[in-house]
Amino acid sequence: MTPVERKVYKANRAFTAQGLAFLSRRFFNDPFLSSRDGIMLKALITEADRLIRHHGAENNELVLFALMRALDWLDRYVAVAFSDADKTGSLESLKEDLIPLLEEVRVWYASSEKLPYSRGTQILCNILLQWRKYFLRYMERAKTVADEERRV
């Protein structure tokens, strides 16, 4: 943060927790979540990143953020599957590979698991295994934006 931001934004982990609870409720109930054009996941990650950087976060929120980032990596591959020239990617890819993991994250976040986050770690492993499956099929995805983005 800049010196001005440090003065304005105070450590307020409770605010981050409330913000992420609100955002996650909206995220898990988004009707466009199962749409290939849905951007709710990216919106949640962007807002979560801002909340955490400016106000701090408890461990639970940091784990949620890590899970959402991993889901975003997987979501990018699901998008590639949708646009696969062989048309092998479909809504089934989304339903079979992404939606069940989203549900696991939703249930985990509602449970308020505490350290050592064994269930959260297992979910992260499940997401990464799916991600790896897509990686082996499509390898590295082409970047859609320049390496360096300016912060708004």
Describe this structure in words.
The structure is a single chain. The protein has one domain (3-138). Helix 2 (13-28) packs antiparallel against helix 3, helix 3 (40-55) packs antiparallel against helix 4 and helix 5 (91-111) runs antiparallel to helix 6 (118-138). The chain is built from six helices and no strands. It has helices at 3-8, 13-28, 40-55, 59-82, 91-111, 118-138. It is mainly alpha-helical. 68% of the residues lie in helices and 0% in strands.
Largest sheet: none
The total of beta strands comes to 0
Bulk shape:
globular
How many domains make up the coordinates?
1
Mean pLDDT across residues: 81
* Beta-strand percent range: under 5%
Observed structural traits:
152 residues, mainly alpha, 0% strand, 6 helices, 68% helix
Short description:
The protein has 6 helices and no strands.
Topology:
Blueprint: H1 3-8, H2 13-28, H3 40-55, H4 59-82, H5 91-111, H6 118-138
